[in-house]
Amino acid sequence: MRRTALIPLLVLLAAAPPPAIQSPGEIVAAAPASAWRAVDPDNLVLMDLANGGHVAIELAPAFAPAHVANIRALVRGHWFDGNAIVRVQDNYVVQWGGADEKKPLPAGVAAHLPAEYERPRAGLAMRPLGFRDAYAAEVGDADGWPVASDGKSAWLPHCYGMVGVGRDMPPDTGTGAELYTVIGQAPRHLDRNITVVGRVIDGIETMTALPRGTGDLGFYTDPAQRTGIVRARMASDVPAADRPRYQAMRSDAPAFAAYVDARANRRDAFFVRPAGAVDLCNAPVPVRRVP
Amino acid sequence: MRRTALIPLLVLLAAAPPPAIQSPGEIVAAAPASAWRAVDPDNLVLMDLANGGHVAIELAPAFAPAHVANIRALVRGHWFDGNAIVRVQDNYVVQWGGADEKKPLPAGVAAHLPAEYERPRAGLAMRPLGFRDAYAAEVGDADGWPVASDGKSAWLPHCYGMVGVGRDMPPDTGTGAELYTVIGQAPRHLDRNITVVGRVIDGIETMTALPRGTGDLGFYTDPAQRTGIVRARMASDVPAADRPRYQAMRSDAPAFAAYVDARANRRDAFFVRPAGAVDLCNAPVPVRRVP
């Protein structure tokens, strides 16, 4: 009886082939134009390194408007030109901008800013990730950014490649003149203890492969070990024809939902057991350079 | 009334100073000898790189006995000597041992092994981490190793620095001849899809700072870009006087509990808001070299 009852099902399966299994990368590659938003050139810092690296950083004014305004003024005031990467701590951060503590800040740059560790949850169109998080009650994505929340406040999490504002002990001592990016396991204990201002969207491998500093906290002990920053510019100040353009995947795009699902449930041939879940920092928002 | 009621409490606080706040590093530094177990030299691979790097890898026979035995035979059969690091994929893995696919495996090395993706949970003295995990129902530490579990099975998670066995599509194609270590956000979706055999306990920064490969999956496109492996030895084959010795913190040591608590609740001066939680891969088991 059981065999007979199965026949119609088998016939049905033969008639309708299963949907093609796509890897996360294939889903991203096949995403339609409508799945992407442009990275605003006024939120895009382009940094050229002395080792030939070209680093692109997207700023997040929706989360840290005062610090983003300060960073724009720092870039336009040539603060980073001739500055350097001063710290590379393995499995933690690369930090730059603090090559000369006596250098005065450019005109128009605030020397003290209020901490922008979090913002109201209200006003964010947050797509829930759909899986639990070790740190936050709620995680998801909004407007192409990963977001963590306690239901009332929301903040940018310290995932790989996120950019934060170095500070001294008092919370109002960060200006954006010294920045870092995460190069290891997401140090989420820094969330809500530091202002996060954006993320590296291109060229991070030119910073992550730098020699680790051997001083305390991975600082270089000899200035000669530092990697220089040739210059940093706002993309909006670069002639349009020379300007690299980037897009981030929209949080509300069906392709993004498919991508997160595929990250959580790898069905491509290599995998024998899909995880059935994904960590927020393991489903990084796809970003692409527009040719 | 309220002010008056407070006075005895204030007096009490003045009389009994609060306990000293220790950072995770200070707790580790102050841990007594009883908090540590030795790394068995027969589970310790010492690998010298052509860039001057010295890498120490602790093997985990409690989780992958057949693969660990194979790796010992590979090391003793000089498989890795003159081999190379062939792949560096940013925010993912460094991989070595696959420099020559035609090189025959040394005598005594099995060409096929059963997958060792998990083992029974029973028999492990697992200290619960005490915080939730995005991937597994239960996480914690046992005998100085991070462990994830579904209550029945247990496995080593893909945290930063963990070492896994490269394989082709069929699950029994990994031998240990090609190994990788994690150099980014823990790719936990690989858990239970690959045999994890150990972790790098020293020298990982000599691999993580290597240039990223530009081929598919971060493979180097030109063999000249590879970093050579001068030799690999089992520490137990090195004369005792020349042998580096390491210790891992015991999972059942009070100092380990204090360390995990401090990782979850940073109270040192920089922090304004302790996270109140920690991810398994953000509380790596302390390991130290014995002078």
From TrEMBL, chains A, B:
<dbReference type="InterPro" id="IPR002130">
    <property type="entry name" value="Cyclophilin-type_PPIase_dom"/>
</dbReference>
<feature type="signal peptide">
    <location>
        <begin position="1"/>
        <end position="20"/>
    </location>
</feature>
<dbReference type="InterPro" id="IPR029000">
    <property type="entry name" value="Cyclophilin-like_dom_sf"/>
</dbReference>
<keyword id="KW-0413">Isomerase</keyword>
<protein>
    <recommendedName>
        <fullName>peptidylprolyl isomerase</fullName>
        <ecNumber>5.2.1.8</ecNumber>
    </recommendedName>
</protein>
<feature type="domain" description="PPIase cyclophilin-type">
    <location>
        <begin position="53"/>
        <end position="234"/>
    </location>
</feature>
<keyword id="KW-0732">Signal</keyword>
<keyword id="KW-0697">Rotamase</keyword>
<dbReference type="GO" id="GO:0003755">
    <property type="term" value="F:peptidyl-prolyl cis-trans isomerase activity"/>
</dbReference>
<dbReference type="InterPro" id="IPR044665">
    <property type="entry name" value="E_coli_cyclophilin_A-like"/>
</dbReference>
<dbReference type="Pfam" id="PF00160">
    <property type="entry name" value="Pro_isomerase"/>
</dbReference>
